[in-house]
């Protein structure tokens, strides 16, 4: 113990009840903290009305904010970046559309309108808009079960567009209602596992294209796919296989090379387009399309046709479209927001998640009316954009212009593009999503997070994308529930030669004081953990009494609860403390509180518990509480045995 | 600041990384904390094998533990209590069965078998077993929608028995899997509101009986009920009304009297039985059954018939039975466990929630095979049991014996019991459940809890019991989510004349140190709040810089994060700290950590973040961190402006 062991108790600091706040003021504060933690209104403060209007418009349409400051220097950079990502957008668009069992042209359409909308509304400078692989696969998995894309292509496309519309509405309303934090409930570990699993599944699906198989399983799990492949060994087409392996090799080589020398990132970025060109020329020259190499075939020329009338609100499959839209919308959002945030953090600017959600939502609503399916900010394309040195969202406009030119004039060039090249492009992009390094990192730092990650992965790979998603969300929720329902309580001891009392687990040298039990509750207390804490505290006391009984003749007399970490408390928590107090009174123990925070003091005060515990038993620090208890213990010893009930009278 | 302002930094206490624990040991500890927080195996430790077997058997069948110590004194007390609660059980059983739209005799059956099972397996000494009002109403509301109890009585009874079976299985498995904490997620505020609303609804339903109406709405909301009553004013039967009002007056008077003089609690306890006797005699004498006063009619003599073959597992309504069983099972469990716990806490003994759940589950499984419907530990009956001085669960056996005698010999006596008396008994019991005092208490202590309570109440009263339940659970979950997603962060300042740094909200006198921002994170950090905290910390820094810019010429140089309250952290939390560190580096600010706990230190260490932050910037207390920063600030001033990057070198 420190040198203040026998200091008379009167000199201790007083724990204050926070000054009362008017109800509506504190309500306003908590609403603001809940819905506007980033305080978007700060810039509006103390501004004249006209300025406020301009700022408000700029808030919702960020291009108005940065366009006036746009320079030619910026444009040069954005032009290069835009062309680079366009060269990626065209083959990826076609590939992912095939993944979603949609006509390839819809993939191209989806790289034209949505980037333009995002350039107007989005606040990220680095995000490149486009279709994304995992939601594409999910669309085909969820929709394809009910409506077969080959048997009923028109209805299938209509439903996908409707799902996109719902996804957009859902995303925009999450943003408008400022409920963006719902996305945060998908933990990083969950996303790593889920994305890795989905990427594995997508790669497995591409074996169909690589091996040139005609019949293939509709299931996505690894066992069905493997069975489907190995029961058809005699159907494998070597032409297709050789072509696929060559292009895969080419893509991986460029990737490896670009990783080694980051200046040549464009080699990697251009690789998909060069593969497509090479593959098409090869097929055109050798007429391989007649020898088992499937090609894209005819692509319609022209820009996106309007599709508002295609939205199938009267369809009996409306609920399916709604479900698909909401689920794929959330996943697309999670990826897009995460990508936006990470690049913003590289370049040190802020992104408002809720505003991004509105931008994504509007982009998908507009997309669904112009023959586009679900888009977001894919990681691969955004990374290329960033590496290519983009400065603003103008790179998206440049990309859209390039795609427009493709749509108007160049679609016939894709007639001979072999599907196997598209499969190779997808595999090359997806392999990067299997983030085994992140999984290893998780396993090093937090075993539970690793278990979450692996379960999500296994669920996707051995079950289905939906099962994996359900497992991932369920485990994430379970984790949250466990975090809440089972807060840690630790035993504190005095660190030698200091006044600090710290957990004995962490500081094995810390000494506990005989006759005094010092416990620390390490989390806010509320209904979900109040009864656990009550039981756990009782167990601590039981164990301490057992220990003292067997070793020394000192009796346990004081229990100090360190409430420093109890940031908030609700009525159930207050009742818990009241019950602990009663329980201790029955056992002739004195309950002592150390460092209760403002919320705790406010609620203890309102429920008259401060009186019941006794003001003199509430201390500002654990050290003071321990000092006072020690002082009482020693004065007992000197004065002989006095009954417990007098102790509080003496104190006053 | 304290007097140690310019102490050289080398003398500060060192924050330790906790000693590494083997993975399986720490897993075992966390599994134990999660599933066995009450440590039921403690008594098994260091015992010979035979003793362990006996203890194990006693653990699962508690009667084996206390029966050997049972004395004649105990029996006398239990006999009195048992007879008292039997006098309540018979009329309540009949009334609640009617509430569940079941034949009255099933209510009597339910007070015979389940109490016997509970006496064997239950660990509460005060709980009296019986049917409960709210789940009874819920059964009729949920089942009655699909299968009309009057049109298809046999199927209805079968489904109710099946639902009881599922409720029992669900309860027992919650207990066996030690998932009892799920019940804790129904907060006290939710339960107060929901129970109050349900009691109101039950009372309103009784107006049918009191007014002698034949046709009545099937809805339970107040508007439908009122419309149904006031559109049938000419159908009101004054005989029934007068009788009902008289009995209500009688019941309330006895209740009031017993409250005033607790020794006469038995007057209140006997009142329902005396009402039934009085009412039956009155009807028999006046032949009021021919003048608009409905009576129970014929009740079959004899004990519970077996009903295993009645369980309708093949029925098309199986899912309905399952749903009803699970929902009513949870509510029954919540009431039973809460009742058991509160009386245990009065008499200072422990109750194991999970073991209680197994007992409830077994009791309902056995009940469903012997023509009983859902039972639990109703508050009213248990309170009477407690007041009557029961000592052990033998009072339940006595009650069962009394009910058995009733079933065997006395059922004809209930032929003339008027239904209006049963309605009066239900109303008198239910009024007590409308706990307006608890609601007032909630509104005083925690406005949000009050809002939860009122929403649940309004949902039940103006919507339906199910809507109310959904609202209650949804708001409880929302509350949990908000608690997690939006942890508090507070600004700390130095309390004058002490070394303590506390929240400026709570201690308005606390002074903050210019150039140093001290923030405290008041909750564990994990994926659900990591991105909020990152944004919030950035906002604190922005605001502090704005404030400093406008007032003084001091620049913000140090940000101290007080991590005392961060009990646990996951990988997302660690990434958050890493990002905050990067962000501060970019702004030329120094991140300083104060008092990270064992979990935090362990994970910072494993992710090499300690190196990145610098060991010398992690302090044992906020006071030491502030001291060191202040020291650096002042040595700057003396030495003139030095670039920020050197600061950490100087420190070492």
TrEMBL record, chains A, B:
**TM segments?**
102-121, 127-144, 156-179, 263-285, 317-337, 357-376, 388-410, 416-436, 448-478
- Where would you find this protein in the cell? Membrane
Q: Which one of the record's GO molecular function terms can you name? A: secondary active sulfate transmembrane transporter activity
Q: Where is the STAS domain?
A: 507-625
Q: Which GO terms describe its cellular component?
A: membrane
**Keywords (A to Z) from UniProt:** Membrane, Transmembrane, Transmembrane helix, Transport
Q: What is this protein called?
A: OLC1v1019962C1
What is the superkingdom listed in this entry's lineage? Eukaryota
Q: Name one Pfam family in it.
A: STAS
Q: SUPFAM superfamilies recorded for this chain?
A: SpoIIaa-like
Q: Which InterPro entries match?
A: S04_transporter_CS, SLC26A/SulP_dom, SLC26A/SulP_fam, STAS_dom, STAS_dom_sf
Membrane topology is: Multi-pass membrane protein
Q: Where is the SLC26A/SulP transporter domain?
A: 75-455
Q: Give yes or no: UniProt keyword Transferase.
A: no
């Amino acid at each position: 113990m420190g040198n203040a062991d026998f200091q008379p108790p009167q000199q201790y600091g007083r724990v204050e009840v926070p000054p009362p706040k008017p109800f509506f003021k504190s309500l306003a504060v908590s609403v603001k903290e809940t819905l506007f933690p980033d305080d978007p209104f700060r810039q509006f403060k103390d501004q004249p009305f006209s300025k406020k209007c301009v700022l408000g418009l700029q808030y919702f349409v960020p291009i108005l904010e940065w366009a006036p400051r746009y320079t030619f220097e910026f444009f040069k950079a954005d032009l290069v970046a835009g062309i680079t990502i366009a060269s990626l957008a065209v083959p990826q668009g076609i590939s992912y559309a095939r993944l979603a069992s949609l006509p390839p042209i819809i993939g191209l359409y989806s790289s034209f309108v949505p980037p333009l909308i995002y350039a107007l509304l989005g606040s990220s400078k680095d995000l490149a808009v486009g279709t994304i692989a995992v939601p594409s696969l999910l669309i085909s998995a969820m929709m394809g079960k009910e409506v077969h894309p080959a048997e009923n292509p028109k209805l299938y496309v209509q439903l996908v567009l409707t799902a996109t519309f719902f996804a957009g509405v859902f995303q925009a309303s999450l943003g408008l209602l400022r409920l963006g934090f719902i996305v945060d409930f998908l933990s990083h570990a969950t996303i790593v596992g889920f994305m890795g699993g989905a990427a594995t599944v997508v790669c497995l699906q591409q074996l169909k294209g690589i091996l040139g198989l005609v019949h293939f399983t509709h299931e996505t799990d690894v066992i069905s796919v493997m069975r489907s492949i190995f029961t058809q060994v005699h159907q494998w087409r070597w032409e297709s296989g050789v072509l696929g392996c060559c292009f895969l090799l080419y893509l991986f080589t460029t990737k490896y090379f670009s990783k080694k020398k980051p200046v040549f990132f464009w080699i990697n970025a251009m690789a998909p387009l060069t593969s497509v060109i090479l593959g098409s020329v090869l097929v055109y020259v050798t007429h391989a399309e007649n020898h088992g190499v499937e090609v894209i075939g005819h692509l319609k020329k022209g820009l996106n046709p309007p599709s508002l009338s295609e939205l199938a609100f009267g369809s009996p499959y409306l609920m399916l479209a709604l479900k698909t839209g909401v689920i794929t919308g959330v996943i697309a959002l999670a990826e897009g927001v995460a990508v936006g945030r990470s690049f913003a953090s590289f370049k040190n600017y802020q992104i408002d998640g809720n505003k991004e959600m509105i931008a994504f939502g509007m982009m998908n609503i507009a997309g669904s009316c112009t023959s586009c399916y679900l888009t977001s900010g894919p990681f691969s394309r955004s990374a290329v954009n960033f590496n290519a040195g983009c400065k603003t969202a103008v790179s998206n406009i440049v990309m859209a212009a390039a795609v427009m030119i493709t749509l108007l004039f160049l679609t016939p060039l894709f007639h001979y593009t072999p599907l196997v090249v598209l499969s190779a492009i997808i595999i090359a992009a997806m392999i990067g999503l299997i983030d085994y390094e992140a999984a290893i990192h998780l396993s090093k730092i937090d075993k539970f997070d690793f278990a979450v990650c692996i379960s999500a992965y296994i669920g996707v790979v051995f079950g289905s994308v939906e099962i994996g998603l359900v497992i991932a969300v369920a485990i994430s929720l379970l984790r949250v529930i466990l975090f809440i329902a089972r807060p840690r309580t630790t035993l504190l001891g005095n660190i030698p030669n200091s006044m600090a009392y710290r957990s004995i687990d962490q500081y094995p040298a810390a000494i506990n004081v005989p006759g005094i039990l010092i416990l620390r509750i390490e989390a806010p207390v509320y209904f979900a953990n109040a009864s656990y804490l009550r039981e756990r505290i009782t167990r601590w006391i039981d164990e301490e009494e057992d220990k003292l009984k067997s070793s020394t003749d000192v009796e346990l007399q004081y229990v100090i609860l360190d409430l420093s970490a109890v940031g908030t408390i609700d009525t159930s928590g207050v009742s818990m403390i009241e019950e602990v107090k009663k329980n201790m009174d029955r056992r002739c123990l004195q309950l002592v509180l150390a460092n209760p925070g403002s919320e705790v003091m406010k609620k203890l005060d309102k429920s008259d518990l401060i009186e019941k515990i006794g003001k003199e038993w509430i201390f500002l620090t654990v050290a003071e509480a321990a000092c006072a208890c020690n002082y009482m213990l020693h004065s007992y010893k000197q004065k002989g045995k006095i009954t417990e009930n007098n102790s509080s009278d003496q104190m006053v």
